[in-house]
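Help wanted!
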Amino acid sequence: MAKQAASGKVRGSRTGRPVMALLDLLGRRWSLRILWELRDAPLTSRGLRTACDDASPTVLQARLTELREAGFVELGDGGGYGLTALGRDLCATFMPLHRFAERWKK
Amino acid sequence: MAKQAASGKVRGSRTGRPVMALLDLLGRRWSLRILWELRDAPLTSRGLRTACDDASPTVLQARLTELREAGFVELGDGGGYGLTALGRDLCATFMPLHRFAERWKK
DNA sequence: GCGTATTGCTACAAATAATGTAGCGTACTG
DNA sequence: CAGTACGCTACATTATTTGTAGCAATACGC
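Answered by r_m:
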């Protein structure tokens, strides 16, 4: 197919440009939403599911694994998913989106 | 299913919070990438397709329509897709992502 | 101990979306 | 008219998402 790198690990990275891999990772369903919901406090897997309009645990778990491998999210030892330092940085990038969205709803 | 608002127009907007609708729109395949590729110059539909690793015209066209309805992208009268003023604002929000990605590639 | 409730996580069939290829109709150029 | 590029669509194959149910592990009160 047109995509899928040889490794099968991250799509959209054939050019080797990290932005593409990042855009692809964030461009999967629920990725952005998950980061957004964790923005200011960790959540349990079920809490996260509730926050995400009861998305199916299958995708949520898949995204969570991807985001963990990417180093944006981590599973605390007491349970509950939270952002890593890197994840918080990434999330901070998206914060202006909130204001933008309010302006956009027209 | 767990999502889909009554109108069927925009998913993830059940709460009425515009951010959710935005996160959902941007969280579809190729949405972010399209905005990214148009970041500094308009492209023809075929040029955009080439820029997007030869993604299938079916999705590209679908995303393009959605992004146009959202007011982020427009089709110039001489042909070629470009960002609207609003689209440029949105895209500007994502620009720090480039630097972040470089730092992230570890 | 036993029940109950929570945690993170998985199976699996059905529904939905994306892919790849081909091609349409409309222009514009020579 | 022949060649080319545009935006866009059909359609069968493949991949992803959905929704529901449930697992093993860990904790609680009793």
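OP: Thanks! One thing I noticed: The mean pLDDT of chain A is 85.
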